[in-house]
Write a structure and sequence with these properties.
By secondary structure, this protein is mainly beta. The protein contains three helices and 27 strands. The chain has two domains: about 80 residues, no CATH class; about 220 residues, Single-stranded right-handed beta-helix, Pectin lyase-like (Pectate Lyase C-like), CATH 2.160.20.10. Strands 15, 16, 17, 18, 19, 20, 21, 22, 23, 24 and 25 form an eleven-stranded parallel sheet that branches. It has a four-stranded parallel sheet with strand order 1-10-7-5, with helices on one face. It has a four-stranded parallel sheet with strand order 4-6-9-14. The two termini are about 35 Å apart. The structure holds 2-acetamido-2-deoxy-beta-D-glucopyranose (6 copies). Belongs to the glycosyl hydrolase 28 family.
Length: about 375
């Protein structure tokens, strides 16, 4: 088996770009629906350059921002000629933020690690995204992410020519390791761009003060049709978290997360209906989000304090949450394993036993599944 190499350590930034990446990956001219097609080979890019040609030094100390920016500026000129690849050889490549461009493959060789600069002065504050209206950390702006891309088309970050989607990565962050989002309150509703057809697999995620894998809370454009499998989540405040709030509108639905191994978490799963805050006071308090058709299955967890915290919204309860074949070992710090309100769902072979709201015991046919291989969602 060939060795995997996508290996990204990010310290303070959100992977907003992943949305853009997974929305529109093309394989041989066909929309791939974000699925990880293993046997297919991507059309190789007709042009490839190494970051070394732009003077980058992979010693973990030299700041390579200019090299990344220049390389990508150069590769932009190939956008209408089949695109181009930026090859990053093994090394520790320290950089500030850089922008991706469309029709680009960022190829990280095995042993190539992109390191975000730890110096806050290297992180400029930029205009908010149109679907956000304002910054999250700061009113009026936001910190740039390490690798930026928005509304890109046909961008691939990969470790080998036969894999697309987010896979075979180790991501370790202060805040959320992978966060799927789609816009904030009235701005996100107006903008109306969903995040859909995302496939994440074989990743190791860690987030000391956040969630290994988060959905929302900015989800006003909708998040659907996401498949996550074979993931290891560890040393995080929470494992898998669905977040939303009144005023968001939108939806999080048709999500399946399976074959997960959780280690050292305060909370294994949560779905929170009053998460975060609002961009301004113009949001519509009656814009209730929908959270439904979420399947979590084949999960083992060790050293977990709270198994699940499902706190829905009274006017728009969370529904069709399916928990199947889950076994968590709860640590002594725990006073309560499950917290549930305004939620309903099914469960089958779950330990510890979930709250009655999720105990509508069932065959797995009540759960949500993705129909393969085209990734079209369906409830069976
Ligand atoms: C990710 O980390 C795990 C354990 O920490 C390691 O076994 C694996 O090789 C790493 N994967 C990559 C792609 O670096
Ligand atoms: C990156 O993109 C942002 C937003 O489009 C722009 O303001 C910024 O100047 C770009 N940076 C570079 C180095 O091109
Ligand atoms: C259990 O997890 C907590 C973090 O939630 C961590 O602080 C603690 O060291 C872990 N215990 C063991 C025995 O690994
Ligand atoms: C239950 O989940 C475990 C992994 O968490 C897996 O090894 C096992 O095969 C699953 N059982 C069934 C019946 O799917
Ligand atoms: C569950 O989530 C709610 C909302 O975030 C929070 O207020 C509460 O403390 C959580 N409960 C536990 C036991 O973690
Ligand atoms: C159990 O699920 C079925 C099918 O979705 C639903 O009709 C029924 O009301 C549920 N029962 C409870 C107690 O939630």
């Amino acid at each position: 088996m060939h060795e995997r190499s996508c290996h990204i350590f990010l310290n303070r930034v959100a992977l907003l770009l992943l949305l853009a990446l997974c929305n529109a990956i093309k394989v041989n001219g066909e929309e791939s629906n974000g699925q990880c097609f293993h046997k297919l080979t991507l059309d190789p890019r007709p042009h490839s350059v190494s970051i070394l040609e732009f003077g980058a030094v992979g010693d973990g100390k030299t700041l390579n921002t200019i090299a990344f920016q220049n390389a990508i500026f150069y590769l932009k000129s190939f956008a209408d000629k089949g695109g181009a690849q930026l090859y990053v050889p093994p090394g520790r490549w320290l950089t500030e933020s850089f922008n991706l461009t469309s029709h680009l493959t960022l190829f990280l060789e095995k042993g190539a690690v992109i390191l975000g600069s730890q110096d806050p002065s290297h992180w400029d504050i930029v205009e908010p995204l149109p679907s956000y209206g304002r910054g999250i950390e700061l009113p009026g702006g936001r910190y740039r992410s390490l690798v930026n891309g928005y509304m890109l088309r046909d961008v691939i970050i990969t470790d080998s020519s036969d894999n697309v989607c987010i896979e075979d990565c180790n991501i370790s962050m202060g805040h959320d390791a992978i966060a799927l989002k789609s816009g904030w309150d009235e701005y996100g509703i107006a903008y109306g761009r969903p995040t859909t057809n995302v496939h994440v697999r074989r990743v190791h995620l860690q987030s000391s003060s956040g969630s290994s894998l988060a959905f929302g809370s900015e989800m006003s454009g909708g998040i659907s049709n996401v498949q996550v499998e074979q993931v290891h989540l560890y040393n995080s405040l929470s494992g898998i978290e669905f977040r939303t709030a009144r005023g968001r509108g939108g939806y999080i639905k048709e999500i399946i997360v399976s074959d997960v191994d959780l280690l050292n978490m305060n909370t294994a799963f949560s779905a929170i209906g009053d998460y975060g805050f609002h961009p301004d006071d113009k949001f519509d308090p009656h814009a209730f989000p929908v959270l439904e058709k979420i399947t979590l299955q084949n999960i083992v967890g060790t050293n977990i304090t709270v198994a699940g915290n499902f706190t829905g919204i009274q006017e728009s309860p969370f529904t069709s949450i399916c928990l199947s074949n889950i076994s968590l070992s709860i640590n002594a710090a725990s006073s309560t394993s499950w917290v549930c309100s305004y939620v309903s769902g099914f469960s089958d072979s779950v330990f510890p036993e979930p709250c009655p709201d999720l105990e509508n015991s069932t065959t797995s046919s009540s759960c949500f599944f993705l129909l393969k291989p085209n990734g079209k969602a369906a409830v069976l």
